[in-house]
Amino acid sequence: MPEGPELTQEPTRGLAARVPFQVVEVTGPSMVPTLHHGDWLLVQYGAPVRPGDVVILRHPFQQDLLVVKRAVERRAGGWWVLGDNTFAGGDSTDYGTVPEELVLARVRVRYRPLRKDQKSVLGVLGWAVTTLRPVSAVRSASRRLRAR
What we know:
Layout: E1 6-7, H1 15-18, E2 21-27, E3 40-45, E4 54-58, E5 66-75, E6 78-82, H2 92-95, E7 103-111, H3 121-130, E8 132-134, H4 137-147
């Protein structure tokens, strides 16, 4: 069963107390179309989480694995989280409610690096329009919730 997207950089436990922001890279497809493999995220530790926010959490069964998901709703025992890509799996439909203490950070901004195939003028213009964008809770969450 596919998991993820995973993050390629492990946050340092003590670092979050001193530096509330960190940059991490996304690997995997479970948050497409909101996030893609290779996107970079600016995350904020200790930020309040609201339904619809994209969050970084420790996988409930593999706590050395960090994943990025959308916090859908608060339930007894923690957060119900889902990936935006319904075909990728690896969310609360597989492992249930995620305890509050495993939700580490809230995603604030997504940066999409320039790909090798975007060297044309149109490719660079398209990249410039979409490269740096706040991760919107409302836009993506509403599409996801309507689909259920």
